[in-house]
Amino acid sequence: MSDVTPLPHPSVTVVEVRGITRRYPRTEHAAVDDLDLDVAQGEILCLLGPSGCGKTTLLRLIAGFEMPDAGRVRIAGTTVADADTWIEPERRRIGFVFQDYALFPHLNVRQNVAFGLRQGSKTARLKQADAVLDLVGLTIFADRYPHQLSGGQQQRVALARALAPAPAVILLDEPFSNLDAALRGSTRDEVRQILKRTGTTAVLVTHDQEEAMTFADRLAVMRSGRLEQVGTPEGVYERPATAFVASFLGRTNLVRGEGDGSTARTPLGNLALARPAHGQVLLSVRPEALGFSTNGTGTPVRVMQREFKGHDLTYTCQLADGERLKVVVQTGPGCPVCVGDVVPVVICGAAVPLEASTASRPRA
Amino acid sequence: MLIPAIVAGIGTLIPIVYLVLRAFDADLATVQRLVLRERTWTLMVNTVALTAGVLVLSTVMAVPLAWLTVRSDLRWKRLITILAVVPLAIPGYVVAYSLISLGGANGFLSTLLGTVVPRPSGYWGAVAALTLYTYPYLFLNVRAALLGLDPSLEESARSLGHGGRAVVWRVILPQMRPALLAGWLVIALYVLGDFGVVALMRFEAYSYAIYLQYSSAFDRTYAAWLSLILLALTLAIVATEGRLLGKRKYARTGSGSQRAVVMTRLRRWSPLAYGYVALVMLSALGLPFLVLASWMVLAPPSAEAWLSVLEAFLRTASVAVPAAIITALAAMPIAYLAARVRIPGSQLIERLAYLGYAIPPVSLALAMVFFSLRSVPWLYQTMAILIVAYVISFLALAIGPIRSALMQVPPRLEEAARSLGRRPFVAFFQTTFPLIRRPVVAGTALVLMVAMKELPLTFLLAPTGFTTLSVRVFTRTSEGMMAEAAPFALAIVLFSSLFVGLLVSYEGRR
Prior knowledge:
The complex is a heterodimer.
Chain A: E1 9-22, E2 32-41, E3 44-48, H1 55-63, E4 70-75, E5 78-81, E6 94-97, H2 109-114, H3 122-135, H4 151-163, E7 169-173, H5 181-197, E8 202-206, H6 209-215, E9 218-223, E10 226-231, H7 233-238, H8 243-248, E11 253-266, E12 269-285, E13 290-292, E14 299-308, E15 313-319, E16 326-331, E17 342-347, E18 352-354
Parallel strand pairs in A: 3-8, 3-9, 6-7, 7-8
Antiparallel strand pairs in A: 1-2, 1-4, 4-5, 9-10, 11-12, 12-18, 13-17, 14-15, 14-17, 15-16
Helix pairs in contact in A: 3-4, 4-5
Chain B: H1 2-23, H2 28-35, H3 38-71, H4 77-85, H5 92-102, H6 108-113, H7 122-148, H8 151-159, H9 164-193, H10 196-200, H11 206-217, H12 220-245, H13 270-298, H14 303-340, H15 346-358, H16 361-374, H17 383-408, H18 412-419, H19 424-452, H20 456-461, H21 469-478, H22 482-508
């Protein structure tokens, strides 16, 4: 399954959030502040942000575990929360996967999965639960109790339980954070495949940028209760809108410059721009867009530090001509440059002009 | 959940309000003349002296026993621990009954030995009886604290140059403080609330005086005032305990698991230790059982007597069972509110329930009398008013275990159930309730057991002629009919012991 899955029905919006605001008592800023968001049918959207940015609150607002102070939520065409409407979580057709899974300890795996199934006879429901367990590859564990399962298996039971009633959207709150690093990657792939195989619409909350980029069809980067940028993982990584997004998604060099349309004058020389800009601009230049030149052209830098990471090499350098600008350069693993060397650096991609952050704009 | 919790919480306050109303019925001059007389002061001195005496004596009994069962190389420590806790099942008036039946002309010793020994009574009689049935509360607290002591703290103190005695004073005792205070508080509440022992020993502490005032003098204003003073004394003691405990932290701060304790070798002290344990066991447990057993042999009750015991037992159960069920039903929403719902006032309702537990039963009984006479006269002297009084008095007993269990169940379970289409109430019953069912049953059983042996509320509130087991024991004993009281006392003790055993095994089975 490729990472860029075309959206099956790009026109159908399953989750529609408009102007949603949630303010906790005795706090200065709103946890979620006048936020808009759309999730399309069959899409996996990742809400990414640092801890405390409001991403979990947003998820719980969609689920109905929190009541918004303002704004509107629609799920599958039905308004579930606005100024005059309040639909309880049990009537929203959502599935929720909790960080600690919240499996019912007194029920076995099959009973846990069947818990959300209400139609048909008991045997029919248990049969249906078995079918979902088969989907997540846990058929042989159906008679076990949650405490007899490993973390990764509990994770998949939680997913199966949420998927069983065929919800309009499934909401996942940091579902992989309780797994150890070795298990996290494989579980993530499995969950993604299951979601895609069933064509399930999903919203996943995470603070792990690598997880967000590998898991999401679309990324929504959140900061201080607002959306900073929404787009495909590639789009957001390659064209970050703000300095926050650029540095939260991987490493980057933030360089000040003077734009004159398609290029900008910077301490690293004249750089090509990814989109036109004029006057004072802040630019994001990814370390992998920089390289050491062998023909003598480029801006000379002094190498301060060299980190060998196996598949690549990261150099931390400083401009050689006295200006105190730190430059991070990423090269292939065979680069011969050493600490203390003075070498010219050149740009092999385009620099991205950044906007001011939404979080620093005045609040409503 | 909210509304029943509020109703149950506020319910505790109503009788107190009526007590205050009744107390201020008289004009101010009368009140002054009534309250500010010497008798009020004498009663205060008596009550405080009784409390102090019981605290000292129970500490002398409980602390060495706790240390021996936790930290020494004594044998049969588990058995000793269980036997030390069993007196919890023996009501105070039965202990007083056994002490009293030792002496006197009709007494056990005179029947057995032919010599008349004076009956224990008054201050020392009351102190002895109260100590023998309340010391397990201190024993349990101190034992738990000793078990939790980290031996590496003592070892650090030794490595810092402190000798054995300094370690006890500077390391062990400060850590025992919360346990001692908690145990003392429970015992003090029992002493202040006790009616059976002081009445049988004819010692004029507040609760006995309130009863005398209410039943013989018919001066109910003074009875109301004495009840209020007793209530104030109780609340003052609760507040003092809270203040003494303070906000200090006693938990381990470091990480890593605690090492096993090295047991102190008793060596040449061990005969003394065994003697001490035997003495405590014999007086707290042996005395009531031996006295009751001897009565069975000396004056075997007739079949007719046993029939009336059965009758009284069924009568007792007919109020205790509904009271226990209603108490558990009321406790659940209050515990849920206190453990889960974060709204202003949710903790307050729980505090009110604890207030109900702290109200001295005689004060509560009187308050219920005033309340029913004034507002609901058709309920006066009915089983309904008795059950309401039980519920107010025992609510906290049921809340405790339910609340602790609720704290251990993640709230996410109910949210998960709701995301799977359950209404809030259904979500609670399908996910949280199965996980707290055991504590709910245990709490109900505890209330049932306590209600089965309750005396002062029953004695003052029960309909005329409605004599329970406890009332039978009390009235027969106060009339000096020791042999006739024995089968009723035996029924209570056997039932309670059986129940304690069942509860312990039920709790251990998780």
